[in-house]
Amino acid sequence: METLKLGSTGTLVQYLQSLLKTLGFYKNNIDGIFGNQTKSAVSVFQKNFGISADGIVGKQTWQKLSNFFYIVPTDIPYGSNILEINLQGFKQKFPFLLQGNIGYSALGKNIQYLRFGKGKKEVFYSASIHANEYITSTLLMKFLENLSTAYLNNSSIWGYPANYLFNQVSLYVVPMINPDGVDLVVGNIEKYFPDIYEYTKSLSNNYPSIPFPSGWKANINGVVFFNFQPFDLKLKSNKGVVFNPHLCYNHFCIL
After folding, report:
1. Are 122 and 176 in contact (CB under 8 A)?
2. What stretches of the chain show up as alpha helix (H) in DSSP?
3. Alpha-carbon distance 137 to 83, whole Å?
4. How is 65-123 classified by DSSP, letter by letter?
5. Considering the domain boundaries, does residue 188 fall inside one?
6. Are residues 153 and 243 in the same domain?
């Protein structure tokens, strides 16, 4: 994890501020700027968790914060770096969730999936097919956090016992189909890959009516994933296996 200190900026600082705010240590606005108020909040956290209160978020402080990585933030832009943190937290907090990888993005990022449950009925959810719709990743991951917490606590979610859902349904989730595009929209590409940012900006010049980067939908190469509409079709793979979805709409399918 990147060391954060006075003067640091970006989405990881936003995440730190959001998490400290959720835990009750930070009371100010989430602005992605590591200023004196953020430093003070970090110092108080460090004192409470028995580590040196230097106000710098290094390896030891991140290790203490990792106990709360399963908490999905809903008040900040949700890039692939925040997703990776949450997935790490899910692995620790919810070991019954199966995690895996279905492929890689153009920039080599993992396109990951999770499975909740072991039932015969299979349901598939995905999010962030379009980069500027990254809020769907936030929604889906928060839902999975709430569902998994209900299962862990042997309680219900929306009136359904989570144990029953776990045994009856296999829920497959791909929380971020287009991580490179999302990272462009939330500011990670500009910060960490300025050359790629300039390349995508040159592509966007062909579409002056679309704001850049906030209006970007495509992957990092400018390839747009089309909208999915309801369908009930038989699709054949190159091996001749028939896939017959009963219903799909946008990011959601019941198989």
Report:
1. no
2. 11-22, 36-48, 59-65, 80-93, 135-152, 162-168, 179-186, 188-192, 194-204
3. 8
4. HGGGTTSPPSSS---HHHHHHHHHHHHHH-TTSEEEEEEE-TT--EEEEEEE---SEEE
5. no
6. yes
Would you state the pLDDT for residue 227? 52
Closest CA to 86 of 34, 54, 127, 30: 127
| Interval 175-226: pLDDT, tens | 999 999 999 999 999 999 999 999 999 999 999 999 999 999 999 999 987 6
The CATH number of the domain where 42 resides is what?
1.10.101.10
pTM score over 0.70: yes
Instruction: Answer yes or no: is 187 within a domain.
Output: no
State the residue range of the domain holding 246.
80-180+228-254
> Computed over its alpha carbons, how large is the radius of gyration of the chain?
20
Of 25, 40, 68, which residue is a domain's last? 68
User: Which of residues 38, 68, 98 is at a domain's end?
Assistant: 68
What confidence score (pLDDT) does residue 60 get?
Answer: 97
- Round to whole Å and give the CA distance between 61 and 66: 9
Gap between the Cα atoms of 110 and 80, Å rounded: 9
Residue 184: Cβ within 10 Å count: 28
* Interatomic CA distance for residues 30 and 44, integer angstroms: 17
pLDDT of 151-172, one tens digit each?
A: 999 999 999 999 999 999 999 9
Output the pLDDT for position 209.
95
Q: How many domains does the chain have?
A: 2
